[in-house]
Amino acid sequence: MRTSQLFISTKKEAPAEAELLSHKLMLRAGLIKRLGSGLYTWMPLGLRVLRKVEAVVRSEMNTAGAQELLMPAVQPAELWQETGRWDVFGPQMLKITDRHERQFCFGPTHEEVITDIARSELRSYKQLPANFYQVQTKFRDEIRPRFGVMRAREFMMKDAYSFHASFESLQQTYDVMYGAYSKVFTRLGLQFRAVAADTGAIGGSGSHEFHVLADAGEDLLAYCPTTDYAANVELAEAFAPSAPRAAAAAAMTEVDTPKQTACADVAALLGVGVERTVKAIALVTVAGEFVLALLRGDHNLNEVKIAKLEGMADFRFASDDEIRAALLCPPGFIGPVGINADIRVIADLTVAAMSDFICGANKPKLHLSGVNFGRDLPEPHIVADIRNVMNGDVCPDGKGGVLELCRGIEVGHIFQLRTKYSEAMNCVFVTEQNTQQAMEMGCYGIGVSRIVAAAIEQNHDAKGIIWPAAMAPFSVAVVAVGYHKSEAVKAAADQLYAQLLAAGVDVLLDDRNERPGSMFADMELIGIPHRVTIGDKALAEGMVEYVARREGEMKKIALSEALEWIQTQTKA
Amino acid sequence: MRTSQLFISTKKEAPAEAELLSHKLMLRAGLIKRLGSGLYTWMPLGLRVLRKVEAVVRSEMNTAGAQELLMPAVQPAELWQETGRWDVFGPQMLKITDRHERQFCFGPTHEEVITDIARSELRSYKQLPANFYQVQTKFRDEIRPRFGVMRAREFMMKDAYSFHASFESLQQTYDVMYGAYSKVFTRLGLQFRAVAADTGAIGGSGSHEFHVLADAGEDLLAYCPTTDYAANVELAEAFAPSAPRAAAAAAMTEVDTPKQTACADVAALLGVGVERTVKAIALVTVAGEFVLALLRGDHNLNEVKIAKLEGMADFRFASDDEIRAALLCPPGFIGPVGINADIRVIADLTVAAMSDFICGANKPKLHLSGVNFGRDLPEPHIVADIRNVMNGDVCPDGKGGVLELCRGIEVGHIFQLRTKYSEAMNCVFVTEQNTQQAMEMGCYGIGVSRIVAAAIEQNHDAKGIIWPAAMAPFSVAVVAVGYHKSEAVKAAADQLYAQLLAAGVDVLLDDRNERPGSMFADMELIGIPHRVTIGDKALAEGMVEYVARREGEMKKIALSEALEWIQTQTKA
């Protein structure tokens, strides 16, 4: 394609509302355009990228034996009422009332619709397993949509759903899909990691997330460089310290901490390590119970883990007023010593193994040192793993490795749903023994539009985007400097362009009448992997200039060898 | 692909709610599955057809210089308020309220969104013309969705929008798009007709519809076999009779018509042609005025034409009670003679040239014969073309031809919108003279999902669908009779299948363990254009059987020549 036939709209600055780098670059490169909150138009250049991602996803889904179909975006409420999710899904579901006052939603996901299809179309074990997928527009009414297409309200998703006569069959397909997902992200040229994941609101048992690794990622991932262990920090197990709790050695003493509320500041004041401190976090359960969670000063609460303890589902953090009412102390100085015996204390495994520790005194501007369970306060009511793992923690797989942490952007998620939906919707089949049985189900999602943003978070520099080969809107840019002034440049550029097209190379000829610097800046911002510059000066010597977007070093090559050179580069 | 890997779900009977043949066949062939009223899932086999249509549409849009983008399905109300269509569009627009109580719609069309993009991205005459298209899911909340995907609520549409610095530029692109549409339907192998059309609610000036010709079509089209004139009957002009009104010759006489209310019955009773009769149709304007329209007995009222007369927009038919109140006569015997002078009479051109005609007497069970304007009743208040053209009418292009009528299914519609939207939304550009001017606009729609149903209406027989080559889900079916029993059949089928795949032929190998009759019936119902049957008996002589779906005659060909034979057939 020629730039003169392509709508290009690059901008020097991104709008102020764009916070995330990928969002800024997508707006500046003119890949997307905002229509409203969480609503984006994919402009011609951006759509080329999106379609390339789609094509790779389709190809691997087909290879994995999944069959493409296309379900409606608009779904009747009745189906969601069968699984109880009409009320449970929450305000993220965009509900719609039609002209006949019937209720629908703009589908945020399609478990109910596909299960409705399966229960009427799949009747016998002979028809199982079956695996269906679609690439489709979905809508989730995020309370505060942001980060562009990374967390848009309307977005493009590949969702697949598999149906099975047995759990073994589900596990087989799950493994095949795990492999297919790995191939998708490998083919797209992305650094990614598959991690064990929490199953959350979708329900079911086993689950893995696929993350594109990037510093801006919302998720924290733990992995072991020496084994294949990898898990979302939400899920990664933290072990108790290997040494048992030491005996009390110090006396409990009040220490003045006039301005020190954070554990690190208290430790610094006392000249000890922060790992000698314990912090208390005040929580309130849905039943209204006030609960105190104890963590080592340098540890962080894992909200997913603690929510799984009895009575803790959907807990919230206590307000300052609630803390004062329960502990008679302002936040910043609270602790587990001397509190009302009715208050449930949940200690992390690490805290339970500590002795002679430092914690808030439950008195303004005071902390306590030399605190010991059993002597200065009762043993905690509950001892459990409620913290996030940290760099250097023992890997939970028991193979002796040590965990490292990194950040990721979730772009894929696979679930073993088991019979959660099939039982609720009576999606049964006739077994070989002529009995009826609920189907085992799996579901498998890829955030197609989010991948585009995630790829940019991982692949960019100060000049703009650096597309991996498989996602680039064009593979090669031929920049013709002086196309409208120099016959020689025009002839050489037109010829190379035609040769590349004939060789099947996805090439963009920049034939605009712009300053060279502006053309280079556009091609760099847009992120085209290979650039050939044709200008009068080099051309006089039969040469053109080649630059790889990622490396950035200019190399002169003979015009006569340019075709072969580019073919070699783009095949690499 | 193999049928063992493809979800096929054919049915002997279609559900009772399916009225239209294409709807029945699509359900029976398992191309679509109903989710709710006007909501259909495209099953794997149906989606293959839909994607083939999409691919042809995309290819021709790209060739025509249109650039693909993808706008959100969900659109903010504010944009529609700018053009005033938020209130005007009516209940077909599916309105949505989000969690923040902001109003949106599920886009029924995208003029507002694309104009919003154009006004911020296209600033100068140098950027014009520009032509953008998308292939996208749309929603129109039809009051009574029916006919399957022919008139679904959620459907797939290709919509393009062009922007211009001048009307001449718009006309050029309009002509290019007219040509591209013709190529699309030609490539899809459909018999179609482009007709001049009314611009309706979208607004603007020139407009053409593209119709797939089929007896079940909702639209009536008029065309001239000897010239290139073609128009929707809504629009086709009917001329006044060439001879002036003859002088009155008969006296006005009451005739008993005890049971005759229809003009044809009255004419039969009197032993004269129905073209001697005049029927009166009672209408009520939006202002509440009672109006009488006069048409020749064998002519039909053209509601689009009469609605364009002053005060007649959005008229409705009068109720029986309103007729009795205004004319003091029951329906069936009403006429223009002796009525209240306040009642406006609109006569068709043909009626105004009639003399000695027959009409209702405005008295129960009586008609009048020998009626004449100017003598028995006043000249009509308005004389205008308000009827549908008929077979044999003079062609309005003045070239002396005669009109014929046929039925069509509207699958495409192109409009010259002019500045209707650009003026309402301040979509202006800077001209070469440095002045500001509203852009000229065109819009161009294709009902992608409707094409699938329309193709079936045009291409079917008692056995099922007969796909045109370009739309077939598979080009060739290799039916292996006894695949699981005969080594020879399996070997021959596998080999031919592999050869066809390698040759790039879109082939389906039917390797199911079913009765031959059932496999043949499925392939015929599904409509695969070419079928090769491999069975033990013919194979013993080195032969296979070939049948073209449309012709239906079996032909034996040598297995060794089967590949070449099929390649020849599929390229034809």
TrEMBL record, chains A, B:
<dbReference type="GO" id="GO:0005829">
    <property type="term" value="C:cytosol"/>
</dbReference>
<dbReference type="InterPro" id="IPR045864">
    <property type="entry name" value="aa-tRNA-synth_II/BPL/LPL"/>
</dbReference>
<dbReference type="InterPro" id="IPR023717">
    <property type="entry name" value="Pro-tRNA-Synthase_IIa_type1"/>
</dbReference>
<dbReference type="InterPro" id="IPR004154">
    <property type="entry name" value="Anticodon-bd"/>
</dbReference>
<dbReference type="GO" id="GO:0004827">
    <property type="term" value="F:proline-tRNA ligase activity"/>
</dbReference>
<dbReference type="InterPro" id="IPR007214">
    <property type="entry name" value="YbaK/aa-tRNA-synth-assoc-dom"/>
</dbReference>
<dbReference type="InterPro" id="IPR002314">
    <property type="entry name" value="aa-tRNA-synt_IIb"/>
</dbReference>
<dbReference type="InterPro" id="IPR004500">
    <property type="entry name" value="Pro-tRNA-synth_IIa_bac-type"/>
</dbReference>
<dbReference type="InterPro" id="IPR050062">
    <property type="entry name" value="Pro-tRNA_synthetase"/>
</dbReference>
<keyword id="KW-0030">Aminoacyl-tRNA synthetase</keyword>
<dbReference type="InterPro" id="IPR002316">
    <property type="entry name" value="Pro-tRNA-ligase_IIa"/>
</dbReference>
<keyword id="KW-0648">Protein biosynthesis</keyword>
<comment type="similarity">
    <text>Belongs to the class-II aminoacyl-tRNA synthetase family. ProS type 1 subfamily.</text>
</comment>
<dbReference type="GO" id="GO:0002161">
    <property type="term" value="F:aminoacyl-tRNA deacylase activity"/>
</dbReference>
<dbReference type="InterPro" id="IPR036754">
    <property type="entry name" value="YbaK/aa-tRNA-synt-asso_dom_sf"/>
</dbReference>
<feature type="domain" description="Aminoacyl-transfer RNA synthetases class-II family profile">
    <location>
        <begin position="33"/>
        <end position="468"/>
    </location>
</feature>
<keyword id="KW-0963">Cytoplasm</keyword>
<dbReference type="InterPro" id="IPR044140">
    <property type="entry name" value="ProRS_anticodon_short"/>
</dbReference>
<keyword id="KW-0547">Nucleotide-binding</keyword>
<protein>
    <recommendedName>
        <fullName>Proline--tRNA ligase</fullName>
        <ecNumber>6.1.1.15</ecNumber>
    </recommendedName>
</protein>
<dbReference type="Pfam" id="PF03129">
    <property type="entry name" value="HGTP_anticodon"/>
</dbReference>
<comment type="subunit">
    <text>Homodimer.</text>
</comment>
<dbReference type="GO" id="GO:0006433">
    <property type="term" value="P:prolyl-tRNA aminoacylation"/>
</dbReference>
<dbReference type="Pfam" id="PF04073">
    <property type="entry name" value="tRNA_edit"/>
</dbReference>
<dbReference type="InterPro" id="IPR006195">
    <property type="entry name" value="aa-tRNA-synth_II"/>
</dbReference>
<dbReference type="GO" id="GO:0005524">
    <property type="term" value="F:ATP binding"/>
</dbReference>
<dbReference type="Pfam" id="PF00587">
    <property type="entry name" value="tRNA-synt_2b"/>
</dbReference>
<dbReference type="InterPro" id="IPR033730">
    <property type="entry name" value="ProRS_core_prok"/>
</dbReference>
<keyword id="KW-0067">ATP-binding</keyword>
<keyword id="KW-0436">Ligase</keyword>
<dbReference type="InterPro" id="IPR036621">
    <property type="entry name" value="Anticodon-bd_dom_sf"/>
</dbReference>
<comment type="function">
    <text>Catalyzes the attachment of proline to tRNA(Pro) in a two-step reaction: proline is first activated by ATP to form Pro-AMP and then transferred to the acceptor end of tRNA(Pro). As ProRS can inadvertently accommodate and process non-cognate amino acids such as alanine and cysteine, to avoid such errors it has two additional distinct editing activities against alanine. One activity is designated as 'pretransfer' editing and involves the tRNA(Pro)-independent hydrolysis of activated Ala-AMP.</text>
</comment>
